[in-house]
Amino acid sequence: MTNDIGAVVGSGDDDAGGWSARLGWAFDLIADDPAARAAALAHLAKSRRNAWDALERSNELWQLTLPMGTEEQYRESAFKRAREEYYDVRRHCLPDALWEGTSGVGITSWPGLPYALLFLEWEALYPQEWTEHAKAWGTKQTLIRRLAVPGHNETVRERLTSLVEVVVRRAYRCKDREYVRVARAVDSEDLRRRLGEAVHSDNPWARLHAGYLLWLLDRPQVPNTRHVWRTWLASASGEQAAPTTPRR
Asked: The dihedral of CA 100, 110, 17, 14: what is its sign?
């Protein structure tokens, strides 16, 4: 998986160039080379420390200016600069940079889209490193839901399809159930072929997850709820030996 999504043309800090200047290093988080990943993790750790330090300074000035009253406090120059510095610094690290949303544009045109995909690919490909250095289940869930829409270009659809494939072939992790939304949004012959291969693999998790997902893709009106999952699992248990039921 590579950063080959077409750049979004624009100007200023929030265009594709601005994102790349702040976070271009982050693509090495999913590099095949362990040394490159280690360097990216070190960069991330430094960026996160900078964000924490900036937040600490902002909080200290918040405490000092509290007696001024809310209106005067938020006009006070030192506190205002500290807040602005924190918001700027946190845009240089993950997952913080992704918390600003899509800035009024659709997700398919958002310059931050490559980094949203990157964050999810990192969790899918190197879950232990992701968990140790940037665990954010709420961010994962929000990004998956935002990305689960029609209208993506073919490169993005391919990356989302690959994400679904990776997820169904592993033991369940927190918020993985949200990928049903993505699968429905990018449903295709290619996705169903990959899921079919997973169903017939030697991996019990893959057989279970892919079978459930294919069943849901054939029933777009059926909600992906815990009750539906348990009902399907009970009916499937007579056909295959299922591993311990994951919490969904």
From this structure: negative
Model confidence pLDDT, tens digit, residues 35-71: 999 999 999 999 999 999 999 999 999 999 999 999 9
Angle between helices 204-217 and 154-168 (to 10 degrees): 130
Containing 131, the helix (H) or strand (E) segment is helix 127-134
Measured at the alpha carbon of residue 23, what is the angle toward residues 22 and 27, in degrees to the nearest 5? 160
Q: How far apart are CA 71 and CA 131, in angstroms?
A: 40
Joined tokens for residue 97? 């940079």
Q: Are 175 and 205 in contact (CB under 8 A)?
A: no
The pTM (predicted TM-score) of the whole model is 0.87
State in Å, rounded, how far the first CA of the chain is from the last one: 27
Closest CA to 165 of 125, 137, 126: 125
